Amino acid sequence: SVLLGHFVGPVQGDYNEVCKIYTVGIAGSEIKVSLRPHSTCTYCCNLISPHRRIALHLHRKNHETIKIDMKRKRGRLKAYGINSNITTMLYIHGFTEYAIGVSARGVCDAYLSRDEDYNVLSLDWSSLAVFPWYSAAANNTRIVGRVLAKFLKFYDASGELPLENVHVVGFSLGSHVAGFASRILNGRMGRITALDPAFPEFPLDDKSQIITKEDAGYVDVIHTDSGGYGIPISIGHSDFYPNGGRFMQPGCTASQLAEEGNILSIVLCSHFHAWRFYAESVMNPTAFPATRCGISENGRLNSCPFTVHGYMGFGANKSVVGNFYLTTNNKFPYGKSAESQMFQNG
């Protein structure tokens, strides 16, 4: 599969040329591409000093973005204007993406639109998540997690970034980066939101290899392509299954996406809906009321009263745990009121 990067062998040629990373535009989207994988395999491009391949981006309300390397020096984050007394939202992108890509911008801009202040950061590990080398990128989640954990541990100790105030939002592979980092930190992060955490290459029978609810004070999960590109089991304190959590989500049928002429959009649309739903929830925390009442195979609510037991996304909290279900619209705004879901059920 090209999407998973299972090629017969690496491209041969000049090392500097085959290890270059290119940004390629596909139907309005940009992805990171390399002729060879960047990881720890025998034919991979070197991973010497991986911390130099990773960076943070600080997003500000004036739309300014500041790149911060992973060096550890007391006072650095304070000098950048990061406030230790407020919540820090750290977004971690997925395969082929980067820290100012479409999903990162969607989530970060949503936070910046809120009235209250947040430290809004995104992690750039794009050179370790290049297309088409998915298996290499999956392996790299552990490496990136270690680098991030060292960074957070240092600045937690310095008082500049207290772990209990950190909320990591990870999409796809980024969810596992968050899990591996927090595990090294003994689960001391305040919250991890896992947006359709990646399934391929992550064995379900070994909980040490996937994000779980033990990895932070509160772990909430949004499943939108369960059993496809997303993990098919409940792994958080709260797991949300919009439209049953499966491929394909409303608005993701081939006919609806055909006009884009983008095969990646068709294949990954349901997976990408996880961050789209979350970004909307940041702007409207009650946009996605959810119930414990299950959803049938056709995506419709079962014949039971729709009682609002919690809200998916930004408004989720540890006071309500378990599995939750809801339905959505097929385009933005995706959120449906409890009344409209009751009407559908009736």
From TrEMBL:
Q: What is the lineage of its organism?
A: Eukaryota, Metazoa, Ecdysozoa, Arthropoda, Hexapoda
Q: Which GO terms describe its biological process?
A: lipid catabolic process
Keywords attached to this Swiss-Prot or TrEMBL record, sorted alphabetically, are:
Secreted
Q: List the InterPro entries hit by this protein, alphabetically.
A: AB_hydrolase_fold (IPR029058), Lipase (IPR013818), Lipase_N (IPR033906), TAG_lipase (IPR000734)
| Gene Ontology cellular component terms for the protein in this record | extracellular space
> Do the record's keywords include Secreted?
yes
Q: What are the boundaries of the signal sequence?
A: none
Q: What is this protein called?
A: Lipase domain-containing protein
Q: Which family does it belong to?
A: Belongs to the AB hydrolase superfamily. Lipase family.
Subcellular location per UniProt equals: Secreted
Q: Its domain of life? A: Eukaryota
Locate the Lipase domain: which residues? 62-334
Gene3D superfamilies for this protein: alpha/beta hydrolase
Any Pfam family hit = Lipase
Q: Name one GO molecular function term.
A: lipase activity
